[in-house]
Amino acid sequence: xxxxxxxxxxxxxxxxxxxxxxxxxxxxxxxxxxxxxxxxxxxxxxxxxxxxxxxxxxxxxxxxxxxxxxxxxxxxxxxxxxxxxxxxxxxxxxxxxxxxxxxxxxxxxxxxxxxxxxxxxxxxxxxxxxxxxxxxxxxxxxxxxxxxxxxxxxxxxxxxxxxxxxxxxxxxxxxxxxxxxxxxxxxxxxxxxxxxxxxxxxxxxxxxxxxxxxxxxxxxxxxxxxxxxxxxxxxxxxxxxxxxxxxxxxxxxxxxxxxxxxxxxxxxxxxxxxxxxxxxxxxxxxxxxxxxxxxxxxxxxxxxxxxxxxxxxxxxxxxxxxxxxxxxxxxxxxxxxxxxxxxxxxxxxxxxxxxxxxxxxxxxxxxxxxxxxxxxxxxxxxxxxxxxxxxxxxxxxxxxxxxxxxxxxxxxxxxxxxxxxxxxxxxxxxxxxxxxxxxxxxxxxxxxxxxxxxx
Length: 455
Prior knowledge:
By secondary structure, the protein is mainly alpha-helical.
């Protein structure tokens, strides 16, 4: 935690001065805050990538697809203007439709968007576009740099929105996540056009037909028209990838002008493995749609105090999960429902299964930690909450429970440190912040606080 704050503080030193910086691709000067070094840029992306992944369902559990697409992304990066960056690619397990890149080479696409792409060349151009934002350093220059830090600082506020009560398991449906914060990063039209061009350049250099880029932006226009029916799934995409008919024509013009003699008919539209992967992820998307619906019902059951919604949610989860027996989110969701019913035996059974399938799935580890706490199995609870804290570094809830466990074990200094971390990761209005403040004040002897709620 202290490293993360120090990193942010060090990077923010640049807010003091202004000057000119150099675009690493075209050598153009641009107005900027004191420039961030490449090392800082890399560390910034690495430091915050886990938060983006955890809030967006974690990594999609299809190792074969991950390997297939990673090879494409790394080839695009190798043909980019900054091949030496430590590029990393992750498929996020969320139905939200988006793609983005963090400074330093962390590149992401969501399951929801991937399931909508028809060809491999579309994917290549889209990833080339995101790589272009990194190679031009768009996120860490000018006004976007201030937006980037507001995005990072907003992580705690977003966590508060969904994860405020340490006694209630958090709901992180497939349609939500920290990537929603990316709407703050409104790239200028010039920057978007630069990245469109880089997407074409890198796709052609990797052997892909650049004309497929048109289909990607036509898809975005279709999503815009249908956004009233899919609001929440596509609204962030429309903010970070604003569809524009003129951009489509400009892509066509760029290809004609820059690559007039390229034998585009010999370039790849889709590799031999693409059709199988596309079919599989589209089928999986149908199963996850049932999971998303089920989690919405759990939220409704809480709001209306109607346990009957849980029965319908459980039915949907079992139906959707039948085709994806190796995917941890389904048994984790069943464990969540069991927790809502206070059935710790069923919750333990389902969450043990989820953690076996994916030990690095935040919800599985956090929910199981709650089961252990209800059973007063503090050693096991501490193990799961420690893992949850590692997987989702900005989330205050694992810290709160680790503080309570330390306090229960008589480890006052450790409890103080954990409660302090909660305060650093949450806003003053949130319940978890208030509870941690009460415990911290009592432990430090500053006041006689009302005892924190028992675990």
